[in-house]
Specification:
13 helices, ABC_transp_permease, Branched-chain amino acid ABC transporter permease, transmembrane, about 325 residues, LivM-like, two-stranded antiparallel ribbon, membrane, single chain, mainly alpha
Amino acid sequence: MTTLSASRLALLPGAVVVFFLPAWLGGSQALYSAAVLIAIMAVMAYGLDVIVSDLGEVSLGHTVFFAAGAYVTALLATRAGAGAWLTLAASIAVALALAAVIGLITLRLREFVFSLVTYAVAVVAMTLAANWTFLGGSDGIRGLPTLDLSIGGWPLNAGNDQTLWPYAFALLAITLYLVDRFRHSRLGQAALMVHLNPRLATMNGIDPLRVRLQVFLFSAPITACAGWLYAYQRAYVSADILETYFLILMLTAVVLIGRRQLLGPLLATALVLIQEKFFSFGGYIDKIVLGSLLILVLAFFPQGLMGLLATRRKRPKAMATTLENSK
């Protein structure tokens, strides 16, 4: 058994604990609601994590894919009576189409300009969502049915957060698996090379633009799937899902624990949402806390909390080496 497969197997007991944790803590609707929301927002963040951590770009427009999944689901479910499997497939398809268009336009740009253009895309999307009557305008789209993924005679539906939790957990588990496989794939390795040394990547026959577009196409459906499930949990979709809160939450989830940490976005999302759900200081203050946390991490701990721990571990070793050399 390889070290990689052994490390994956080591996650299984933790996954079992996480799945049953809401029930073990009392099984209240508040706990299940928090668990479902953490899973959804973590999946949302993993889509951005791939772009930031593996490609080295900061997309400020990833909320567009989250909103696309939610709006496509709401429109098809309420106006066409589409089932959850169809809305899921449509959310992925629309996210891929948007990613192709946005990617072809923006991925030729780098760093600050790329971030600025993607943010402009998000602003345009929010303006359209808030004012276009087809998307519900400022009133949004209401009356979504409950999640129903039934296959044949096998009922798979969820009418509340407790019954929705297994599906949110499954979506999170699939996302973790896909991100892990991506990082050990040729595309993942090529993305990292394009990020760290574009010239070396080109010398090795890698087309940076093509790789960047492929990674963008991989990341967008992940975030869109989070929007798909969020629409069913909330039973209501409006332009507020394009607010900067979701963008800041995604960015904080990516950088708080540390980049390229498989469980990093999940742990960071859990920390933020547990504080907001159970130790809230009030809506506006919570947003200030979230924004301040992102500023502090970027300013003082750019490698995240894992980087801070690694630095502390290195200090005793460095001091020991210095003492030995001084003898």
